[in-house]
Design brief:
Distance between the termini: 67 Å
Number of strands: 2
CATH class of the largest domain: Mainly Alpha
Strand order of the largest sheet: 1-2
Largest sheet: 2 strands, antiparallel
Structural class: mainly alpha
Radius of gyration: 26 Å
CATH architecture of the largest domain: Up-down Bundle
Number of helices: 18
Number of domains: 2
Length: about 375
């Protein structure tokens, strides 16, 4: 099992090298590399415990305290930089160092004692030490909860700009966050599970938990390879949409959408709506599976803010829903056509602008309460009767 820990550590180092080999290494890449390095050091620390190196050198607990406290904050900062496309750290990011500073202050008495005793056998009943210990242990789970809300909020925002979800549906970030959560669940539940079974819980009892971390690191490499921009260059070079900064309002309060200074008059909104209806009917831009809000706004000579406001207020939809409703409408026509009865459903979906099977099936069923196959079977038989 000890060799497995080393394999996980080497994996982490290998992925860090891949990230560093990119032509353009961004700030978020450095944060991801730091996150991977810390994951690897977790495994090395367990290896040191198993081999007795920690007992002979108790001072290395400083590394364990530091990286375990930093895991949640680093993951949060990486997600924030990825979502906002920010290329610099700012004061709000530095705030996430507070847990680390607090933990080290709380454990200061142990450090001043000369670190001659193994930390896990050290006894200190002071309130500050206990608070520091809880922050150290549960800081990362708290960050996971915060990240869940952050990703959910961003998922809603992203639908205001894209007509598709493939490559922008946060699968990569979801894997990072939820994969980390799986590891946390196993790690934190281990003592209670062993207690319930009446088995003494020791550091060696965590073997299966650290195996999950090795798998998690491998998964980062696997999904990172599939997600362009992680270990290679970014896929969308020409059109980056900063969904955090544009701040188009999607919520409603007192029946009115909350948009920031679009300056949209009723006459202009009416003109945009008519132009939008005409172009959707005549040119069918929704057949372009890469259609985005800025691209459509350019076609009718308006801004993304104003077009989003018109779609939200005049149709009660966000951009993603509006475009995919048109696509589903075209798919429904084709599914009803006897001449298309032998064609594959996904071929028809692709022709109508969809580029993801899961997104198509989910949206179609949401719109019709039927699967595409059920809809075709029902309507073809009706036509024949």
């Amino acid at each position: 099992m000890n060799s497995l820990y080393l394999i996980g550590f080497v994996q982490a180092l290998f992925f860090i090298v891949l990230i560093g080999s990119k032509k353009k290494v961004e700030l978020k890449d450095h944060i991801l590399s730091a996150y991977l390095l810390i994951l690897g050091f977790n495994l090395i620390f367990i290896y040191w415990n198993q081999t007795g190196f920690h007992d002979k050198n108790p001072f290395i607990i400083i590394l364990d305290i530091a990286y375990w406290t930093l895991l949640g904050p680093l993951l949060y900062v990486y997600v924030d930089l990825t979502i906002s496309k920010n290329s610099r750290l700012n004061l709000k990011h530095l705030v996430h160092l507070i847990p680390l500073v607090f933990v080290f202050l709380s454990f200061s008495e142990y450090f001043y004692s000369g670190i001659e005793e193994n930390f896990f056998r050290y006894q200190n009943n002071s309130l500050l030490f206990k608070l520091g210990y809880y922050v150290w242990m549960y800081n990362s789970p708290l960050y996971y909860i915060v990240l869940i809300f952050k990703l959910r909020k961003h998922k809603k925002t992203i639908k205001a700009y894209y007509s598709f979800q493939q490559n922008v549906d946060l699968k990569w970030l979801n894997f990072l966050v939820h994969g980390f959560a799986v590891f946390l669940i196993f790690l934190l539940s281990s003592p209670y599970m062993y207690m319930a079974l009446g088995i003494e819980h020791t550091i060696s009892s965590y073997h299966y938990t650290w195996l999950i971390m090795v798998i998690y690191i491998f998964g980062i490499g696997y999904f990172g390879h599939k997600q362009r921009g992680i270990f290679n260059e970014q896929e969308f070079q020409n059109e980056q949409v900063d969904t955090e900064r544009m701040k188009v309002g999607n919520g409603q309060q007192n029946g009115k959408s909350q948009y920031l200074k679009t300056g949209l008059s009723n006459d202009e909104a009416e003109y945009i709506q008519q132009s939008l209806d005409n172009i959707m009917h005549n040119e069918k831009p929704y057949l372009d599976y890469n259609l985005t809000l800025p691209k459509l706004a350019g076609m009718i000579d308006t801004t993304s803010h104003k077009l989003s406001q018109v779609i939200n207020e005049r149709y009660g939809l966000n951009f993603f829903e509006y475009i995919n409703k048109h696509r589903v409408k075209d798919v429904k026509k084709l599914l009803k056509s006897p001449s298309k009865a032998d064609e594959k459903i996904m071929a028809l979906a692709y022709d109508c602008g969809f580029n993801s099977k899961s997104a198509f099936y989910n949206f179609f069923k949401k719109e019709t309460s039927l699967t595409p196959s059920e809809y075709r079977s029902k309507n073809i038989s009706t036509v024949e009767d």
